[in-house]
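Now for a sample.
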Amino acid sequence: MKLLILDAGHCLSLALAREASRRADTELVIEQGFGVGATELAAIDPDAVIVPPMTHPGRRPPAEVQAHADAVEACMEACKANGVALVWCVADELYEEGFEIPIDEHVVPAPRDESLRRLVTTGDRIRAEYHRHLIVRLGPLFALEGSHAWLSEIIDSLMLGQSVRAAEDVICCPTSVDAVAMALIGMLAQQGCGADAWGAYHLAGIEPVSAFTFSSVVRTQLATHLEGRGETVALGAVQALNHHHDAKLRRVLNCRRVLDVFGVHQKPWRLEVGRMLDAWCLTRDEARPPQGETA
């Protein structure tokens, strides 16, 4: 299976590269940019194109969101011309106002924000014009490297003694980028074997929490890891932000369909954070000079 990944520096692109390197059945071609034309796609001849999500689209300049939507639609046209499957990953933030219950796949986002509506229009067009697509809605991604990694940003700030400000009144499902990469490759492998299960899927971590609670758990686990290695670091504090004073906004994705169709189980984010912090500590140890030497 040959996959073309766009936006090489995105944390999801890096995770896909790591996952593909562990498999003998997957070949990746990674493009630095975000666009691909029909001629270029024909030359590469992949089985699928994967487009990583735009993180925090509601906070981006409208022109940037417009450019992203235009690029995705151009990519869809190129895929359609070449009969190549399209995987477009989308942030859960398109569900701008959330829902009291977990959000099913058939619920199409209906945001009030004009930039978010532009992305919904792109999704509508993909669904209407090209059958061989997967629109994968994701919870907030976390990773140790790459753009939009979140976890690495929290760790860096805490290690510098800086405060981490995070919303306490928005409930979401933090999602391991490694788990998403594994799931996407598995889903496409099944599609290549004749699953023919195209459409929209939700893919997020389990145990809904606020960004404040997530950041606080990261701080606690980081302190535990450091103390266990005999290090004393004055970590920064985690400060709660409140944007919705009347009631908490719940943005929780129901991921039952991806389990029923592809057998993909969601990974607990607490375990994934612990695993990533183990890896972070090992990388930090390797970067240190041996005892008795100076850097």
